[in-house]
Design brief:
The protein has about 425 residues and is of the alpha/beta class. The chain has helices spanning about 10-20, 35, 55-65, 85-110, 125-130, 165-175, 195-200, 220-225, 240-245, 255-290, 305-315, 355-365, 415-420, and strands spanning about 5, 25-30, 45, 115-120, 135-140, 185, 205, 215, 295, 320, 350-355, 370-375.
Length: about 425
């Protein structure tokens, strides 16, 4: 059987031929790999069937239920907060990525027997590769250039929210009349809803430019917030437990894959615990100072928004989910995704829907009329006055960002589609 090498960078091929001989078989880790070196025959690492719709359903179910018992109760819920629910948004991306890589590698090894993998691969992929023992061999390609577009998706946290010096100054200016800004609808600022918030007489916007209509972030008591987060992930997440959660929907995954997910959950919480606490302190102070009657969230599965939603619920503050864009299709569990701590309702009270078709679709997903608000798409407010085009083009090429949690969503298809269009 010929030597097989997984290509993750254009420089890998030359080094692999030098190390393993001219008869080496190349496999492109990402779909764009062969486009960059069309003169070199390469097989695709990913193939249809590595992640189907049933697999996607299982990924979704595990992501949002790994910390719940079979009655739906959140086992990590303490003192109004669920750290397990908070990290589920980024874990969604990780589970989909780990599932995709694991099954592609499993299928590949059934064909080639032994696969050589560059030491420059993403550390998460190398962790997957180690689960296959001697069937995968790590080699040094003689350079240290990483993949141009890693197939292992990850969400990096830490840059948002920020209590800036500008916000601190505006808070001081606002202090004498801050009491008049209470009992309002508080918008967490996002470019698509800013103009809508400006039109509403009882709305205030986080970090808005006008102190008469703004709500400003401050650091809060990070030490107190950190004490609310256990030192280690306080919810079952061992491989046996994860397997039992999947069994509720008739899914059965390989134990090595469950071990990878279990490790990722533990490490993700440890890595982000202080960030979660800092964010909690910021939104705790925000809600305490402005005491809104309602909070408008531009997202749900992004950790800061999840934290804000949990804190609002603990205070009895109503929440409205206002996500940019029309929903044309969605899985049954989507929007809102998160359930409350008891599993008998949604974490977020209402969702904004844009157009009657969206309203009808949400009703087929089980949302009641009182859980929805029908409105015009807020993003359209920014496109009332379009500038005169400065240039004319023969064509416009558009690509897309695949839904990261989808086991079939490959980042590497985007450059390949672009290159095909240009050719």
């Amino acid at each position: 059987m010929p030597v097989a090498v997984l290509i993750t960078h254009p420089l890998d091929a030359k080094s692999a031929r030098r190390q393993f001989g001219a008869g080496v078989e190349f496999i492109a880790h990402e779909p764009y790999g062969q486009c960059l070196q069309p003169e070199i025959p390469m097989a695709d690492f990913f193939a249809p069937g590595d992640g189907g719709s049933a697999d996607e359903d299982a990924v979704n179910f595990l992501t949002f239920n790994w910390h719940r018992n079979d009655r739906g109760r959140d086992l990590a819920f303490r003192d109004g907060l669920s750290p397990a629910q908070m990290i589920s948004g980024s874990e969604w991306v990780a589970i989909g990525s780990l599932y995709r890589e694991f099954h592609a590698l499993k299928r590949c090894l059934a064909t080639v027997g032994t696969l050589h993998v560059s030491c420059n691969e993403d550390p998460r992929f190398l962790a997957v590769a180690q689960k296959f023992g001697d069937a995968v061999r790590i080699y040094d390609p003689g350079h240290r250039s990483p993949s141009l577009l890693s197939s292992c998706n990850e969400r990096i946290l830490g840059a948002f929210p920020i209590a800036s010096a500008k916000a601190a100054l505006l808070r001081k200016i606002q202090f004498p009349f801050r009491g008049a800004l209470r009992d309002k609808t508080l918008f967490l600022s996002e470019w698509t809803n800013e103009r809508l918030a400006q039109r509403l007489p009882d709305a205030i916007v986080v970090n808005g430019r006008n102190p008469l209509r703004g709500a400003y972030l401050s650091s809060g008591d990070a030490g107190r917030s950190l004490s609310r987060y256990p030192s280690a992930l306080d919810a079952p997440h061992d491989p046996d437990w994860l397997g039992s959660v999947l069994a509720r929907v008739g899914a059965r995954w390989d134990r090595p894959l469950l071990e990878l997910i279990s490790d990722d959950l533990r490490e993700r919480y440890a890595r982000n615990r202080e960030y979660l606490a800092r964010t909690t302190a910021i939104y705790d102070r925000l809600l305490d100072e402005y005491r809104p009657k309602q909070i408008v969230l531009p997202g749900e599965t992004y950790e800061p928004y999840t934290i804000a939603a949990q804190l609002a619920r603990a205070r009895g503050v109503k929440s409205l989910l206002m996500i940019d864009g029309y929903q044309v299709t969605m899985p049954d569990f989507m929007l809102p995704v998160y359930r409350n701590e008891n599993g008998d309702g949604k974490l977020i009270d209402r969702v904004a829907v844009y157009g009657q078709a969206c309203w009808d679709m949400y009703k087929t997903r089980g949302l009641r009329d009182d859980q929805m608000i029908l409105m015009r798409l807020p993003a359209l407010d920014r496109h009332q006055e379009l500038p005169t085009p400065g240039e004319q083009f023969d064509a416009m090429i558009m690509t897309w960002s695949p839904h990261d949690p989808n086991p079939q969503g490959l980042e590497g298809y985007r450059p390949r589609v672009l290159l095909d269009a240009l050719q």
